[in-house]
């Protein structure tokens, strides 16, 4: 009678042990056998230095691992179904279900010791999540409420910038990559006027502080000043839109915008010739703004310079140089002769023209990436936003370090600050618009779903303090501008 060696005995015992373990998880059928046979044939046809028996053994082991994962996957699906059932019961009864209930029904028949441990974990998780839900409801009772009021659709390309007039009649202006700027009725959403004087993308639009004049900057290396006359149409009744707490909206879709609005408004008068054309830049003019009083304007360009012009004579008064890379934005102080310019060189500069004989400049290095915009507030603050996903609030009296830093999850584009409520609106590359107070506390996030909100990058935001229906506007590369009604509770404003 042949005697087995010790190694062969141990090998046989290990194989039997492995077989006995695999019996509990194996579900062999004709399809699996055919697949295994096919895999064996494929292995035999492959070039490998491993012996065929070892490769076959490895194939068996990987097959067992696959079936093990299959069983775990099936059990996971069953557990998910049970959790959904418990979720529905929690929602209906408004109470925490005891973890012992998880071992009832079909789950109990399939549960083992590990499942009982999972039940205990689920019990703890449900208690924790329920308490979070309750606390979140308490926290949202005083949050800002955001309501989408009107959509302004008609541009054939993305909208870079928007602004609201400071004089009556109050209208909305948009600047688009389709080489046009449009004026809109805020109440009806109808296009009132279209400016077609530029030969390139219109990158910025700002209105004169006292007269019906608009200033636009363009990729054609010029800035234009043009006069407009509009008559507001009679407002039409608008269907009631239920108010939505800003932070509770869910991003449902990432669908492309419809192409049905590509032809734009049909009955919209147009202007093709500017009153004044400002030429001096050697690159794209990315932004422009009026100095206080409206007698001078400042422009920012990709030629790394900002120019100060006299409106009446169209002459270049000063060329503001010093930035190491392209400028991205410029903004003027609402009551003082101050200008702030931002650049891709990660800095923004404060230019002081209050003393005619001295034109001082201060450089601020608070960001680590492109400064996309820097704006003044009515008080003594400057707010800067950057591609480094931060927004910083600065005190003009002490600009050594920011007094508040807001960290976000996406690059920040052209920001705006509410004059009355001192709220910062942050448009993001990720299609979101968030609201913060001056101390950096988050107040709200504007709704964004497949039914409302932006579907592309949000390029700019602008506040309107004189309109009752819409007090915040946003625009993006989905070719539309949106008017929002933002209701900030008094309790939050006091904070």
- Physical arrangement of strands within the biggest beta sheet: 9-1-30-29-28
What is the helical fraction, as a range of percent?
10-25%
- Tell me the Rg in angstroms: 32 Å
Shape: elongated
* Poorly predicted runs of 5 or more residues: 1-5, 17-30, 95-116, 126-142, 248-265
Calculate the mean pLDDT score and round it. Answer: 80
Q: Find the structural class using helix and strand composition.
A: alpha+beta
What profile does the largest beta sheet have? 5 strands, antiparallel
Strand content range: 25-35%
The N- to C-terminal Cα distance equals 93 Å
Number of distinct helices: 6
The count of strands amounts to 30
Which keywords apply here?
single chain, 495 residues, alpha+beta, 5-stranded mixed sheet, elongated, disordered N terminus
Describe this structure in words.
This protein is α+β, with helices and mostly antiparallel strands and about 500 residues long. It is built from 6 helices and 30 strands. It has helices spanning about 5-25, 30-45, 50-95, 105-110, 115-140, 490-495, and strands spanning about 145-155, 160-165, 170-175, 180-185, 190-195, 200-205, 215-220, 220-225, 245, 270, 275-280, 285-290, 295-300, 305-310, 315-320, 325-330, 340-345, 350, 360-365, 370-375, 380-385, 390-395, 405, 415, 425, 435, 440-445, 460-465, 470-475, 480-485. A 5-stranded antiparallel β-sheet has the order 9-1-30-29-28, with no helix packed on it. Strands 2-3-4-5-10 form a 5-stranded mixed β-sheet, with no helix packed on it. A 4-stranded antiparallel β-sheet has the order 6-7-8-11, with no helix packed on it. A hairpin with a 5-residue loop joins β6 (about 200-205) and β7 (about 215-220). α2 packs across α3. The radius of gyration is 32 Å and the shape is elongated. The model is unreliable at about 1-5, about 15-30, about 95-115, about 125-140 and about 250-265 (pLDDT under 50).
């Amino acid at each position: 009678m042949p005697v087995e060696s010790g190694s062969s005995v141990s090998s046989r015992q290990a194989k039997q042990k492995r077989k006995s373990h695999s019996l509990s998880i194996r579900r062999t059928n004709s399809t699996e056998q055919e697949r295994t046979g096919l895999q064996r044939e494929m292995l035999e046809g492959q070039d490998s230095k491993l012996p065929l028996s070892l490769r076959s053994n490895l194939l068996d082991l990987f097959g067992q691992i696959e079936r093990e994962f299959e069983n775990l996957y099936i059990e996971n699906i069953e557990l998910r179904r049970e959790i959904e059932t418990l979720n529905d019961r929690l929602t209906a009864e408004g109470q925490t279900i005891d973890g012992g209930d998880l071992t009832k029904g079909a789950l109990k028949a399939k549960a083992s010791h590990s499942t009982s441990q999972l039940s205990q974990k689920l019990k703890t998780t449900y208690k924790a999540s329920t308490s979070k839900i309750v606390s979140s409801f308490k926290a949202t009772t005083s949050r800002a409420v955001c309501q989408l009021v009107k959509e302004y659709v008609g541009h054939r390309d993305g909208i870079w910038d928007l602004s609201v007039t400071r004089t009556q009649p109050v209208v909305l202006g948009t600047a688009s990559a389709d080489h046009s700027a449009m004026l809109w009725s805020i109440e009806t959403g109808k296009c009132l006027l279209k400016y077609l004087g530029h030969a390139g993308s219109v990158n910025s639009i700002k209105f004169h502080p006292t007269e019906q004049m608009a200033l636009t900057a363009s990729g054609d290396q010029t800035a234009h000043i043009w006069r407009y006359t509009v008559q507001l149409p009679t407002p039409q009744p608008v269907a009631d839109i239920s108010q939505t707490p800003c932070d509770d909206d869910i991003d449902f879709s990432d669908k492309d915008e419809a192409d049905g609005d590509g032809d734009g408004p049909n009955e919209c008068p147009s202007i093709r010739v500017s009153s004044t054309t400002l030429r001096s830049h050697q690159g794209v003019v990315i932004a422009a703004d009026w100095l206080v009083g409206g007698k001078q304007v400042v422009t920012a360009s990709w030629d790394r310079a900002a120019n100060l012009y006299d409106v009446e004579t169209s002459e270049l008064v000063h060329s503001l140089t010093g930035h190491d890379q392209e400028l991205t934005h410029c903004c003027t102080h609402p009551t003082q002769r101050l200008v702030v310019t931002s650049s891709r060189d990660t800095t923004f500069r404060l230019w002081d023209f209050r003393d005619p004989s001295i034109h001082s400049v201060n450089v601020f290095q608070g960001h680590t990436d492109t400064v996309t915009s820097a704006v003044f507030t009515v008080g003594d603050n400057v707010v800067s936003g950057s591609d480094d996903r931060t927004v910083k609030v600065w005190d003009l009296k002490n600009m050594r370090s920011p007094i508040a830093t807001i960290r976000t999850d996406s690059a920040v584009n052209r920001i705006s600050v509410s004059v009355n409520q001192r709220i910062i609106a942050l448009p993001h590359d990720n299609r979101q618009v968030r609201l913060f107070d001056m101390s950096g506390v988050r107040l709200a996030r504007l709704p964004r779903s497949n039914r409302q909100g932006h579907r592309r990058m949000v390029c700019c935001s602008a506040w309107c303090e004189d309109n009752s229906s819409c007090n915040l506007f946003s625009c993006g590369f989905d070719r539309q501008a949106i008017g929002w009604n933002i209701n900030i509770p008094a309790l939050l404003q006091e904070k």
